């Protein structure tokens, strides 16, 4: 159903995301409350934020007149890969922006997002965070004796950018563009009744090394836009206390806490000051390259296993006009069907 491609390179990870913000000071406040750490000093009109992991930075915020998602960068597995893709695209390399340096190949995907392939950026010493609450008392296995769980509201420590989700009016073209250039493998694909894929979750091909269930997801829709950026935190308690912290700071909660079906992440979604969505996640699926692609009929019920229903703003609008494209009608119908017997 998804024909295999021989990719130019196999990229390794999502390294960083970039935004233009008309109010970068407030954006910085959101990112810090979300769990990122600002790098000092800010450059002229630009500020950079790291996670607790080794990436030189995870988020770039450029001061401007608009609120725009500019794009993201993927890490190459080798300098040879960077050059191989540059040759394929017949484009030159340039110095990577911001802390850490390195080289990058700058491309634009079919929807116009700025996509860099990055190599050679310096890494940072990871920041220390609390241990995961790995010891869990089970009905038949007591592993946490005389050790109460005591956590406080605090920004959820985020380690790295986990994935980016894009809505696109050219799903097939976007899917092929990313698979051909960066070696993305389809982990799960949701289809409408005629078999057309309209939602896809794609992971990096790391061979026998496990990769996140998805580092990129695409949803067919009327216009090209960012749906969300997701960052990995420690565990459910980090997500819960991170939620309390974000609530205390007055930020707009969007959806969660729940667990996804495709990818299995425990999730919680927030909106930044410009209305873009950010997801905290923990305990997501990891797959090796040989894990087969799953195919599923698109449904709202298939988007989450437990937790609240989708917020109204993520639900499809009312019935489409009679002359709307058949694919749009099929997507809206699939996402409109009651996901649980007690939900409408
Ligand atoms: Fe997500």
Q: Can you walk through the features of this model?
A:
With 344 residues, the protein is of the alpha+beta class. It has a single domain (13-120, 159-336), classed as 2,3-Dihydroxybiphenyl 1,2-Dioxygenase, domain 1 (Roll), CATH 3.10.180.10. The protein is 17% helix and 33% strand. The chain has five helices and 19 strands. The protein has helices at residues 24-34, 79-89, 171-182, 236-248, 326-336; strands spanning 13-21, 37-43, 46-50, 59-63, 68-75, 94-95, 103-108, 114-119, 160-168, 185-191, 197-203, 211-212, 216-220, 225-232, 252-259, 266-271, 277-282, 286-287, 294-297. The strands form three sheets. A nine-stranded mixed β-sheet has the order 15-16-17-14-9-13-11-10-19, with helices on both faces. Strand 6 and strand 7 (103-108) form a beta hairpin. The radius of gyration is 20 Å and the shape is globular. The model has no long low-confidence stretch (mean pLDDT 95). Bound molecules: fe (ii) ion. Fe (ii) ion binds at residues 163, 165, 228, 230, 279. Fe (ii) ion (FE2) is lined by residues 163, 165, 228, 230, 279.
Summary, kept brief:
This is VOC family protein. With 344 residues, this protein is an alpha+beta fold.
Topology:
Blueprint (H helix, E strand, L loop, with lengths): L12 E9 L2 H11 L2 E7 L2 E5 L8 E5 L4 E8 L3 H11 L4 E2 L7 E6 L5 E6 L40 E9 L2 H12 L2 E7 L5 E7 L7 E2 L3 E5 L4 E8 L3 H13 L3 E8 L6 E6 L5 E6 L3 E2 L6 E4 L28 H11 L8
Parallel strand pairs: 1-4, 5-8, 9-13, 10-19, 14-17
Antiparallel strand pairs: 1-5, 2-3, 3-4, 6-7, 7-8, 9-14, 10-11, 11-13, 12-18, 15-16, 16-17
This protein binds fe (ii) ion.
């Amino acid at each position: 159903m998804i024909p295999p491609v021989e990719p130019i390179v196999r990229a390794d990870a999502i390294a960083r995301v970039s935004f233009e913000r008309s109010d970068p000071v407030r954006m910085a406040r959101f990112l810090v409350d979300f769990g990122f750490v600002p790098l000092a000093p800010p450059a002229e009109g630009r500020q950079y934020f790291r996670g607790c992991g080794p990436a030189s930075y995870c988020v770039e915020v450029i001061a401007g007149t608009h609120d725009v998602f500019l794009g993201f960068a993927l890490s190459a597995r080798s300098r040879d890969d960077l050059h191989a893709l540059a040759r394929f695209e017949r484009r030159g390399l340039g110095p990577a922006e911001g802390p850490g340096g390195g080289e990058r190949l700058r491309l634009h995907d079919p929807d116009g997002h700025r996509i860099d392939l990055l190599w050679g950026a310096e890494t940072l010493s990871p920041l220390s965070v609390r241990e995961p609450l790995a010891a869990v008392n089970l009905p038949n296995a007591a592993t946490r004796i005389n050790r109460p769980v005591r956590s406080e509201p605090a920004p959820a420590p985020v380690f790295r950018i986990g994935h980016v989700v894009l809505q696109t009016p050219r799903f097939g073209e976007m899917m092929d563009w990313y698979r051909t250039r960066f070696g993305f493998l389809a982990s799960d694909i949701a289809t409408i009744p005629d078999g057309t894929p309209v939602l896809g979750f794609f992971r990096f091909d790391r061979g026998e090394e496990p990769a996140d269930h998805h580092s990129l997801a695409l949803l067919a829709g009327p216009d090209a836009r960012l749906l969300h950026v997701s960052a990995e935190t420690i565990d459910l308690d980090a997500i819960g206390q991170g939620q309390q912290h974000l609530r205390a700071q007055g930020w707009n909660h969007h959806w969660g806490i729940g667990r996804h079906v495709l990818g299995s992440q425990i999730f919680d979604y927030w909106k930044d000051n410009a209305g873009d969505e950010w997801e905290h996640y923990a305990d997501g699926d990891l797959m090796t390259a040989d894990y087969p692609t799953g195919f599923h009929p698109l449904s709202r019920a298939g988007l989450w296993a437990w937790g609240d229903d989708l917020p109204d703003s993520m639900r499809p609008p009312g019935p489409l006009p009679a002359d709307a494209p058949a694919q749009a009608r099929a997507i809206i119908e699939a996402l409109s069907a009651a996901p649980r017997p007690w939900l409408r």
